[in-house]
Structure formats: structure tokens, C-alpha cells
Amino acid sequence: MRTMLLAAGLLLPRLAFGQDTTSGVRVGITYTPGTRPALAVMGPRAGVADSVRAILQADLDQSDRFELAARPAADQPDARALTALGVDYAVVVAAGAGGAVDVRLVEVRSGTERFRRTVSAARRTQVHAAADAIVQSVFGQPGIAATSLLFVRSGRIWRIDADGHNALMLRTAGFPSLSPAWSPDGRRFAYTAFVRAGQPVVVQDLATGNRVAVPGTEYGLNITPAFSPDGRRLAYAHGTEAGMDIYLSQERGGRWEAGAPVTAGRFSDNLSPAWSADGSRLAFISNRARSPQLYVMSADGTGQELLARFDFGSTGQSSAPAWSPDGALIAFHREVGGTPQVFVLDVASGALRQLTGSGRNEDPAWAPDSRHLAFVSSRGSGREVWVLDLETGRLRQLTTGGGARLPAWSPRLVQDDR
Fold first, then answer.
1. Which tens digits make up the pLDDT trace of 51-68?
2. Is the model's pTM score more than 0.85?
């Protein structure tokens, strides 16, 4: 089961600084591995255009793909001056009519306009989506600005944007509510609700608040729900006196069916399912060999095998697996000397790498770009959600207020027009 405390110090991954590993054709400037293109964000120093410029600059900085240059004195690009400063790209922000703001991306050396979009300063998600499109135009993969995270604080589920703004407590069934999980389209989330009758798995619509309990979860303990990549199946752990097993529920015609087990615990616990990118496999935690460890199986329950080797003496029980959206890595936390630390497992090679090394660090959750990882740590004042970029090793605190637990990162929410 996902643990509830968490904390400090990070042992940064030894990767090339800023190395881009995304796929896709890049047109224009090319870069030596281990470098990042320099980018300047330009625009007026007051008014709505300046507020858009500030959001874009923060988003592009937090994408961890650019080296941000100091803000130029001029509002418009001077190719010669920017080239002398080593700037590769300029984002130019200009005020338009009726509160609209024009955003352009210019490749400095060639003068080519790579991207243009009009956004509303009153709608942050439009600005976030523009930032992601800028990342897409350069690297072939969008950024993470137009995403949100769910997390638990004091038994309530909260939502916060990936830039740390717009923290909002959601109304859910029951108290406490735990283990939030996003649907692939970002319109719903599942969670465990503690109500008088039991601990059902609830699926709730974010926009309307409409919610339904998954049939068969009205009794017993039901935890760690996870949507399949196509959104049509829900895996969760169902516990009775005989143990805990992973169940799968299917959605048909807009209704969830009662779940069926895909493990047979026989007085052991199987929990925390995590889907592979293609929906064919599930990683999960099982204590069938006494100490909880990371296993994998086909989605129908066949082919169950240990995935991350035991490491007796130096490490202990494993928890909270999260499969990266690109399918390459599985993050989880494992006790090292009695303290949880975050690890990543390379699925193809089986190589295991420890990301954190000081304090308590747990409950990892992947961003949709498969290079940023959220986890809970108490390295500051109280448990907070932190974000790590696996390419550069950069770390930033996302939440404040303490008591954060169990983060879940959304897909890209380009339709969430806040």
C-alpha cells in the first residue's frame, strides 16, 4: 500500500545535463547532446501582455528543456543583438485587441517564425497550452504546462496546476478520500472513499461532480485504483479477511461492471496496480514472498513474475509503482535502511537506479512527458509534493502547507479552459 509519510534529500541522477531524448524530426538549429537551446521571452513590461509573458517564461523554464536568457531590454527581437548574446529562440509577446495577446516563437539565426497563437490573458490554460506548443515546435514533444496534479491532504483530495497555482480542494464522497487516479482523458478521476458502508472505489466527473461507486466495491477494503490507458478498465485492490487481490472492472455502455480478480492471494496481499503504456501488462506489489516487492503480469493475470530483484540486507519492502507513459521506466519507492527512497527500473534492461538518498521520499507519479517525476518529500517544512526532472536533475517544490500525500499527474488538459 502506498505509504503516507515522506521527505528530504535527493541524490541527483547522473545524466547528461539537459540531454534531449525525445523523438521526432527537428527542423532548423541542432544541438550537441548535453546542451540546451537558449531562449529569451520578450514583451511589454506592463499590462495583460506582461502577465502572459511571465506565465510563459515560468512554463518554459519548468519544461527544463531551455536555457533561459536574461530578459532583453527591448520588447521586440533584435536578431543581431540576440545572436551576440547566444540566444537561439525568442518568444515574442504582444498585446492585441480586446484583451487578446499574440504569442510568437522566432528562430533567431534564420528569422523564421516557428509558432504563432493568440491567447486570452484571463485564461491561464490557454497560456499553458501555448507554452507546451512552443516546446512541441522545437523538440517534437509538448511540455507539461497544461497539466494538473491531484494529491491528498488531511483526508481531502486537492488539485493543483503543474506550475503550483490554482490549488483547489475537491468535493468527494466520504472522508477520508485517498489514492486519486486520473482517467486518460483527464475528465474523471477514481479514488477510495471511506463511507459508513465501507470503502468503495468511486469514479467522479471533474466538471460536474457526478460520481458512481464501482459495483462490487461496496464491501471490504478497496484501494489504489488505476485506469487503463484506454480508460475502459479500472484496476484496483480488493481486500477481505483472506487477503487482498487485484480486480479488474470493465466499463460498458457508460456503466462499470463488477470487478473480477486477476490474482489469487491465498492469504497474501496484491495491490497498487500500474498499467503499461499499451495496457497489456500490470505492475503491482505483492508480499507473497513475505516482503512486499515489485511484480508484473499480463492484464489477464497470467505470467506473474518478480520484476525488481530482491536486495536483502540493504533494501526492504517496495511500494507504489508508477509506469511511465512511454512504457520505458517504472518508478516506485523502496525502503533503504528503514527509510523509503524513490527508484526507477528500466523495463527493457532490468537496470535499477536509486534517485533519492537522504530523508523520506515516496509515492512517485509520472508527468505525461515521461521525464518529470512528482513525489512526496519532507525536505522543507512538512510533507510536500516535489518535481524532479530526470534529464537535468533539477528539483522544485510544487505544494505548500504541509501534509501532502499520494500525488497523481494528469494527462495534458488542453480542453480545460480555465
1. 999 999 999 999 999 999
2. yes
